[in-house]
TrEMBL record:
The keyword Hydrolase applies. GO terms for molecular function: hydrolase activity. This is Gamma-glutamyl-gamma-aminobutyrate hydrolase. InterPro entries: Class_I_gatase-like, Peptidase_C26, PuuD-like. Pfam families: Peptidase_C26 (PF07722). The lineage of its organism: Bacteria, Bacillati, Actinomycetota, Actinomycetes, Micrococcales. CDD domains: GATase1_2. Coiled coil: none annotated. The keyword Hydrolase applies.
């Protein structure tokens, strides 16, 4: 029987409370990520951030994984893509920025299956030398991508024909959305989905085995196809002979 692939999911370190323990640091990620991975046949492992993550540490971690999810979260620090900070940019989380940029770069080197989600898509773009749009409403004139605090919007995306994403979810999908930033440039990636207002909604590496990112939040949806595709790609990679 084949082994279930192990999928790492990046996380926060946040103060949290449970039982008699109040306001103590915990490694946290919304459980919906874990549930989707498990439902798709994978084993989810939470990856806490560490501010000293370097390339060697990232490579050592990825050697123990079959796939990776770069999860959603706060804005990437604009200083990391040499831009001035917009007034709406959230407080930076250097531990996540350092860890996830290292993982994004190292995973590309070893062609590990990766799914980037919201912030994760932006991390992948910045790791490749791309730029972010710091406040989408300045361009589009509406807040439909993030209508209110802790409230997901919903809108259609148009998927580019012939892409891997098209093979997974088809040509049009209504998606849950919660972001005020987006990817402007994405070296090495091709655009694979757009919102009607011109916002880039997905990108993928056309030469990688599976390296795909979406600007929306599939973890809060009931559609399992993106997670199934990641787990299937991870299982296929894990089954390859490792020796000569």
């Amino acid at each position: 029987m084949s082994l279930r692939p192990v999928i790492g999911v990046t996380a926060y370190v946040e103060r949290a409370s449970w039982g008699r323990w109040v306001d103590v640091p915990g490694a946290l990620v919304p459980h919906r990520y874990v549930q989707h991975v498990e439902d798709a046949g994978g084993i989810a492992v939470v990856i806490p951030p560490r501010p000293d993550t370097d390339h060697a540490t990232a490579r050592a971690l990825l050697e123990r994984l079959d796939g990776l999810i770069l999860a959603g979260g706060v804005d990437v620090a604009p200083e990391l893509y040499a831009d001035e900070r917009h007034a709406t940019v959230q407080d930076s989380r250097p531990d996540r920025d350092t860890t996830e940029l290292a993982l994004a770069r190292a995973s590309a080197e070893v062609d590990l299956p990766v799914l980037g989600i919201c912030r994760g898509m932006q991390v992948m773009a910045v790791a490749a030398g791309g730029l972010l749009e710091q406040h989408v409403p300045d361009r589009v004139g509406h807040d439909e991508h993030s209508p209110a605090p802790a409230t997901y919007g919903e809108h259609p995306v148009r998927v580019v024909a012939g892409t891997r994403l098209h093979a997974v979810i088809g040509g049009v999908a209504d998606v849950p959305s919660y972001h005020h930033q987006s990817v402007l440039t994405h070296p090495g990636y091709q655009a694979s989905a757009w919102a009607d207002d011109g916002t880039l909604e997905a990108m993928e590496d056309p030469v990688a085995g599976f390296r795909l990112a979406v600007q929306w939040h599939p973890e809060v949806d009931t559609d399992p196809r993106l997670f199934r595709a990641l787990v299937e790609a991870a299982a296929e990679r894990a089954s390859r002979p490792s020796g000569p």
